[in-house]
Design a protein that fits this description.
The chain is an alpha+beta fold and 469 residues long. Helix content is 33%, strand content 23%. It has 15 helices and 22 strands. The strands form six sheets. It has a seven-stranded mixed beta sheet with strand order 8-7-18-19-20-17-21. Strands 12-2-1-16-22 form a five-stranded parallel beta sheet. A three-stranded antiparallel beta sheet has the order 5-11-6, covered by helices on one side. A hairpin with a 2-residue loop joins strand 7 and strand 8.
Length: 469
């Protein structure tokens, strides 16, 4: 009689939990799923906390409602699967601004991650070098070409469009710089269009037309009870054994599957599994793969990450503009790179007493000395800079919180997806019951992480089914 499968999921972030749910839904009844999380908390970068008596996100705050093709995103599908669809809420204020030349200017419409499809619409923020975006008689990119976003946009539209629009928007998402980040990985729709179109403006318009959005439909959503409710519901629905404070330190292939070394060096626990799904950042994954797949480990170890800090303040009745927040170009010389007015952006968070929750992010890839400041100094600096940008002194916070996320955001150099595909192909050939998932490989954002985990789970199921285990 065939014994039930045993699957180890290493990493208890949303990627690993989504994988565990998919395993529970699709694997044979009786499959034993164990999630190993080295910290004491599940959820990874999804963490709902409390400040001044109110729930607030100390990590990711929302998810995209649609995928690039216009269908329901993987995050929304998971929310529905977990019975939380009625908890979805949307921003009540969607307009954001850019801090440019000492003032706030609305983020112009008609752009794709800051790259304009209509040059006239961005004139208030940046002056495009329109004459450079001429039709050269051939597509912008070759069939397999990848370039840094900033390299392409600077060449076609000039420095101001990159420095004042694209770089702050990409920086808000990746804490990286447009001149370093892969176009194919961070802006896949634009990359596809650039393989056909002869001008950058034309490529933006083609990418937008390929995934039209009905007017008035929300772009983002979150859960009224906080994103930690998604984490908790996924953990429960997976039916997995949840092991917190359980670091997986080694991974060894065996004749029948895998042996995991778990826990402290002095008292290691040896665990047998038929398959392993690694849902951890690239460098921890590389350490685990150093023995069983050394070439793959070397490839993964080359992926770098940026560290950030999120500073949230509770402010009594501040004078805030009716904006969701603002982004800060690096050329402005400020410590903060973005700010979100939580209680303005999200109507369900507004308070009758006028207390406002405002969050700012600090830390750019390659320039992370600001993160060496103490928590108190970070709060004081953010408070001062916010007051400067808003042009009015903000009241003294009644409470504040500093959340540091070390090595939180992957930095995707050009060619990233090809390198990941090659690593996965090699791993699949040598060890089909070992799969990789997560932001380090497939991109940032809750929907991408959910889909990555689900896809890896399907690979594991196929491999185990095909092996006759």
């Amino acid at each position: 009689m065939r014994r039930p499968w045993r699957v180890a999921v290493v990493g208890g972030g949303i990627t690993g939990l989504a994988a565990a749910v998919r395993l529970r839904d699709r694997a044979p009844a009786g499959t034993e799923i164990t999630v190993y999380e080295q910290s004491g908390a599940l959820g990874g970068k999804l963490r709902t906390g409390e400040l001044a008596g109110q729930a607030v996100e100390f990590g990711a705050e929302s998810f995209l409602m649609r995928d690039p093709a216009g269908a329901e995103s993987a995050a929304v599908s998971l929310v529905r699967r977990l019975g939380l669809a009625d908890e979805i809420v949307h921003p009540t204020v969607g307009q954001a601004a850019l801090a440019v030349d000492g003032g706030l200017r609305p983020v112009p419409g008609g752009t794709l991650v800051g790259v304009p499809g209509d040059l006239a619409k961005v004139a208030a923020v940046a002056t495009p070098a329109a004459q450079a975006d001429r039709d050269g008689g051939r597509p912008l990119l070759g069939p397999d070409e990848d370039v840094a976003v900033g390299v392409l946009v600077r060449r076609r539209l000039g420095d101001q469009v990159v420095d004042r629009l694209v770089d702050p928007i990409l920086g808000g998402v990746y804490a990286g710089r447009a001149d370093d980040l892969s176009l194919v990985t961070t802006m896949p729709a634009l990359a596809r269009a650039a393989r056909v179109e002869h001008t950058l403006v034309g490529a933006v318009r083609a990418a937008q037309a390929a995934a039209p959005r009905a007017p008035g439909t929300p772009v983002f959503g979150t859960l009224a009870g906080g994103l930690s409710t998604l984490v908790e519901a996924a953990a429960t629905a997976s039916g997995a054994i949840i092991r917190r404070d359980a670091a997986v330190r080694e991974l060894h292939p065996t004749a029948t599957g895998w042996r995991l070394v778990v826990g402290p060096t002095r008292e290691p626990e040896l665990v047998e599994a038929d398959a392993v799904l690694l849902a951890v950042p690239a460098r921890p994954a590389a350490r685990l793969l150093a023995g069983p797949a050394s070439e793959v480990a070397v490839a993964l170890a080359g992926l770098d990450y940026a560290s950030v800090a999120l500073i949230t303040m509770a402010l009594p009745q501040p004078e805030l503009p009716e904006l969701s927040g603002f982004l800060v170009p690096a050329t402005e010389g400020l410590l903060i790179k973005a700010s979100t007015f939580f209680t303005t952006k999200w109507g369900h968070l507004r308070r009758a007493d006028g207390l406002a929750l405002v969050r700012a992010s600090v830390g750019r890839y390659g320039d992370e000395t600001s993160l060496q400041l103490t928590d108190d100094d970070l709060v004081a600096t953010v408070h001062r800079e916010l007051s400067k940008v808003l042009g009015t002194p903000l009241p003294t916070p009644v409470a504040s919180h500093v959340q540091r996320w070390g090595g939180a955001l992957p930095q995707y150099a050009p060619g990233h997806l090809d390198r990941v595909a090659a690593a996965r192909t090699a791993l699949r050939a040598a060890h089909p019951t070992l799969a990789l998932a997560g932001a380090g490989y497939d991109g940032v954002g809750i929907p991408v992480c959910v889909r990555s985990g689900e896809t890896a789970a399907e690979e594991i199921i196929t491999a185990l089914g095909g092996s006759g285990s």
